[in-house]
Design goal:
heterotrimer; A alpha/beta; B alpha/beta; C mainly alpha; A: alpha/beta; six-stranded parallel β-sheet; C: 3 domains; about 80% helix
Chain lengths: ~280, ~400, ~210
Amino acid sequence: MLQEQGPTIWDRLLRVPRWVIYLIIAAAVIFPFLHPLRFPVEVSQRTRQLYDYIDKLPPGSVVCLAFDYGPSTMAELQPMAVAVTRHCFRNNLAVAGVALDPWGAALCDAAFATANSDGKKKEHVDFVNLGYKTGYSAVIQGMGLNIHEVYKLDNRKTPVGDIPLMKNVRTYQDLAIVIDLASSSTPQAWIAFAGARFGATVSAGVTAVMALDMYPYLQSGQLVGMLGGLKGAAEYEKLINQPDQGALGMDSQNLAHGAIVLLVLLANLGYVVTRRQARRRQER
Amino acid sequence: MVRPTSIRWKRGGPTLALIVALAMCAVAWGQGQLPRPPSSLQVVDTPNDDGTSLTLAWDKSPDDGAGARNVTGYAVFRVPPRGKRVLIGRPPAGATGFADVKLKAGQAYSYEVEALSAAGPSAAAVGGPAAPTEQWYHRGRTNVLVGIVIVFGLVAFNILRAQRGAQLYVRPIAGLEAVDDAVGRATEMGRAILYVPGLTGISDIATIMGMIILGRVARRTAEYETKLLVPCNDPIVMSAAREIVHEAYLEQGKPDLFDPDSVYFVTDAQFGYAAAVGGLMVRERPAANFFMGGFFAESLILAETGAAIGAIQIAGTDQDTQLPFFITACDYTLMGEELYAATAYLSQQPRLLGSLKGQDWCKIVIMALVLTGAVLALFGAAWFRALFQVQ
Amino acid sequence: MGLVRLRIPLAITFVAGVVLIVQFFIPSHPSMKLYAASQAWLRIIGAFAAVLGVGSILKTHLERVQRAHQQWPFSTLTLAGLFVTATLGIGWGVQPDSPADWIFKNIYTPLDATIFSLLAFYVATAAYRTFRVRTMEAGLLLTGAVLVMFGRVALGEMIQPHLVPQSLEWLFTFPAAAAKRGILLGIVLGVTATSLRIILGIERGYLGAE
């Protein structure tokens, strides 16, 4: 009487249940929060380029951060915003936040609040949230002519003319750099309108998926450095020596990537072995 | 007793003269630190515009980028016939041009440009008057016109060829061949078909193609009397989809089977929509999922949820960042232009097949141009690349 | 399909398409005004679309509640969310520290981020299921995926310093970028040809016609 063989370990490797995979990923993501592993973060040339540019700015320069993303991508982009703002605050640079995304203004407030958690910086003197403006490329072009015409009031409804930080900031020439934090194609608009037309210095922080799209602009010099994904945020945090959400997230990302690769390799091992066993059975 | 003024002057005179002389020397010394002005300021009508812009061009100040009188930027002023001049821009150091916009066509304007430095502004370079005029043809876009003529010409030629009976070969596209099979599978299993028309608006070509494929799928579901669900992310897309599905049921002679509520608006929030459609999949367990249109980060959430419930999945999008996710999670994926080819492929209409052929001929032209450009670039010929710049 | 449902829409499409193509080559003031007007009309139509959307939500979910559909508690929640958020937003504004802003920060933002974070799990299951070395192409795909997975995190540097990150940079800069541009060229041609078909009325499926 023929006995049916139960599934071997190799068959099981091919059919790991979904819930097991989800558990492995959950464990890989959660574990570093309980026990930080502090994986080394290697800083890329792209991140260093932006850091060096900001680091060399004279005190009192105004950096513009464009918050062009929403809550769904804030896990990747918010740590960048906080790290860059901290760097600016440390070097006594002023920061002006603008938003082309409706959710950007609230995220700008949150980023500034986090970076200014010690309360040493004053709103309207060291930082200002100019808020959200609809119009996309029209806003970018309008800022090149007169920022005060585009943003008559800031996010708190204060007349921009009365804001000390904005008194001498009228066009891109008065901004040391514009850094667009984006989850969509807004960096291309900033490059085309602010950079090419008005001579603004432009950089970008984008999600990891979009980083590949920015390479041509980096290579041509239209972008001064770029932060790509959570890794970009972690790299910047390393440069300013203040590891935070970016570094914490990278621990999880390291483990998760390792877990996925391990699962894939095990599945392939199971596939190769079961295929070989099946061939041998056929030959017999 | 107060001494007379003349006597006081005689005694304080040399001191006062010394102070005045020192002051004049200080002014002269300060003047000597000011930068030299830019030169050869020209004001011309900006070409290819609506007559509201003038372009200024100048030679840089000799002190731009050199020495103790280093120029930090320029100040551009518009000078009215009467009254004070108005500052209109501050180009950075190194700039040799500026465009003044929002002017009145036909009106003359004059300008002054000063070089700025830490010590102060230079004397002004004067230019103008000049008047902006509007143009009726944008010369900078002639290359686009030529390109359009070539593309339209090749497409039109092949449409005519197809209409005259030429046999045009179109390679098999597995995803499109599987559409009818997927509908048949759902019918046999007695389960619904889920059609997701994407998250871009009705003006996006991918959404339009998604609507067209929806029409075909709806005709099949009407024919086989299979349940069709179309959750929409955009209200206008919802209206269009409802019309298309209704027409399909009318065409098949089954207007009573059409349920208007099967095509409905969910939300325009990206992840709210993904959550809603994911929940719909888990509850209704459709046998076939179609994802046709523009998608973003939610693409993998939708596709993987569909894979988890065991549905056969056919996706098509022109978002190249989302193609990898659909390729891994779906059974068939229409990549980019394969989505646009869908209507021609499914209907086999000669005019549509002809336009596909025209596209292919255009690709050959582009490949030839790319090769030519690459070879010329090796020899340093930048003029060829300049032909393709669009203003 | 008759005059109203087919011929008139096709005529509007043809005229609008030709006019806007010609407009692209005419920089004069009337042409710019026409373009600005077309953009304004698009926004106006989009605003009316919001009315359509809200109407659809109300109709769908009110019917479910009325008919005591299986999912009626969730429909009630949906309607409540719609009314509460709209009332608070219209009544108290959406500035920082308003009630609507509180809803955004404490309900919408965490929910949005949560659904997005599901991608982490779905990437794992999709990769596990798909990256099998069945063919040579699948093997190449697997190799690329492993390289990207390791190269984007510190693990790559730890496994082989410089080699993995540099290989990834090369992959991004040359083969991946070249493939992307090839796909994009095809898409652009497809858009051009499809637009021509729609403008000329050869493509009519979006109106429900064959």
